[in-house]
Here is the input.
Amino acid sequence: MNKIKRQHGFRLRLTEFALPPIQDGLILGRLSPIGHVAVGKALSLLSTTAFEHVPVEDEVIGDVLVRSAILRKVSAEELKAFILQEIKPIMGPEEILHLALDLEIRLEREPR
Here is the structure.
């Protein structure tokens, strides 16, 4: 009778669960498995950070949830235009993408 040799190995990678689990926002595809209302409710339970819904009328992108602080620095229309131009070509309608923005604002005042 042949003996069966069994081996088991484990590889584990642990990372800390960050709150909120979303850095700056989410881009939800039109056919994503979860909608902005459900994600918004989950975020309100997990974090004190305020997120705002930016609706998008598009065949690929359905909604954007973004930190309110970002919308104090850039308008929803500017953000939407950027996402449609830069993200839409590489996104599928069933996807949900994390949004991490490096936003830089430069101010210059002329001397009086």
User: Anything to note?
Assistant: The longest strand covers residues 61-67.
